[in-house]
Amino acid sequence: MKERNATTIEKVPRDSIGQKAKIYNLEEGLEVVIKHVIKRTLIKSPVVVEIAGGSASGKTEIVATGLKNAFGDDAMVISMDDYYYDKTRMAVLRETLHTINYDQPASMDLDLIKMHVNELRAGRSITKPVYDIKTESADKHEIVHPVKVIILEGMFALYPGIFELGDIRVFVDIGLHGRLMRRLFRDMVKADRKPVDILNNFANQVQPMHELFVEPSKVNADFIIENEYKPDVEAQRSGLHEVQKKFEFDISSENLRRLGAERLGYFLQIDYYYNPKDRNLMETDEILRIRVEGNKRILTYKGPISDKVTKKRPKFEFEIDEATANKFLDFYGSVIKIIKKERTMYSIQDIVFSADSVYKVENGQEKFIGNFIELKSNNEIDGEYRIKSALSKLNLNLSDGIKKSYFEM
Fold it and tell me: Which CATH number fits domain 234-400: 2.60.40.10, 3.40.50.11440, 2.40.320.10, 1.10.630.10?
């Protein structure tokens, strides 16, 4: 077999090759694709269905799996991930392609993919590699027999030289914000990776390669299925919930001490709130911010409020360095609000709370918003009870809490 020239990295042409693809939501799109596959099998067999899309778009676990389930034993899924070059070959490629990575089509044996799809189309069995991400090699192989419906799925399924193999071409679409959130949730659990490492990889490799190779290939699709991130459901995967209540309350540290509060420390915090390029987080009740506190930078994501009384939200946060923060901002979006807080931390009834003097920063000028008490608990089970107990000590009523966050003020 002629070896593919892996040193050549092609950029997908942005001009459409055919009619403009129709766009569907997930449920409708999957149903439409299934109907088209059925019609095509009446004309020819086998039918090759290509499913492409960005990382964490749902192309594998939702769309390809849904299609396979619809046709049962008459369908099979070929994952392009099984055709990655092994670590030895990648090391050789890096000698000439110093920036090659696994988010580029040059990291895959595209010639072997084409040969295998054509063999199956001709009714012949193939011996397919099974790639192991832990060993970075295809240590095992499996015999695959031809069936009526061949599903080829992968980020580069609609890449030039590959998309021409398909009878039906599908692109599973999701915005930047959703891909980042899903990638963080997925890799923290499945790959046991640190969030800051996932973010760095996304910023330095995944997103740039997506823009260069994956997103432009959408023009080669017959159908586009939108599988957007659903924060009210998917944010629950964060594994942490925050119960929060805020009160307009101006009280001296001495009076707080008399009420039984223990002073823990003082911090100056500047919170930068961001909107991604592809959606308005205020409309979806999400919050993404970077907090600067001394030399520390903390990225925080909060999903929609699930309890309006206690302001309970799914949440995760992690510390990032300045270089990561700047790289994140390069691709993510823009600052929509800056909040400055002079924050003194206290503890009462096992609840840590803050006494905040809050300012809104606009056009470089600080505007005083007010003095507040903010109580938080990350204990999902009895967080509300703990907050109520602490409020009674401070002579505050839960019903007097402010509904707006500092961001909304």
Answer: 2.40.320.10
User: What's the one-letter identity of residue 45?
Assistant: S
Residue 337 has which token pair?
């609000």
* Amino acid residing at 274: Y
d(CA 279, CA 282): 9
Q: How far apart are CA 22 and CA 20, in angstroms?
A: 7
User: Please, is 229 exposed, middle or buried when counting C-beta atoms within 10 Å of its C-beta (0-12, 13-18, 19+)?
Assistant: buried
Q: Which of 377, 370, 376, 375 is nearest to 409 (CA)?
A: 370
CA distance 314 to 232: 9
* CATH number for the domain running over 22-229: 3.40.50.300
Please, which residues have CB within 8 angstroms of residue 260's CB and are 6 or more apart in sequence? Answer: 348, 349, 393
Q: Which two tokens stand for residue 8?
A: 């050549």
> Residue type at 78?
I
Residue 40 near residue 141, CB atoms below 8 Å: no
Residue 251: CB atoms within 10 Å: 15
Question: Domain boundaries in the chain?
Answer: 22-229, 234-400
Angle at 255 between CA 249 and CA 260, to 5 degrees: 100
Per-residue pLDDT of the chain (409 residues; tens, 9 = 90+): 233 333 333 333 333 444 578 999 999 999 999 999 999 999 989 999 999 999 999 999 999 999 999 999 999 999 999 999 998 888 888 888 778 899 999 999 999 999 999 999 999 999 999 998 888 888 899 999 999 999 999 999 999 999 999 999 999 999 999 999 999 998 887 767 889 999 999 999 999 999 999 999 999 999 999 999 999 999 998 888 888 888 998 888 898 888 889 999 999 999 999 999 999 999 999 999 999 999 999 999 999 998 777 778 999 999 999 999 999 989 999 999 999 999 999 998 778 899 999 999 988 899 999 999 998 777 665 667 777 788 888 888 878 888 888 988 8
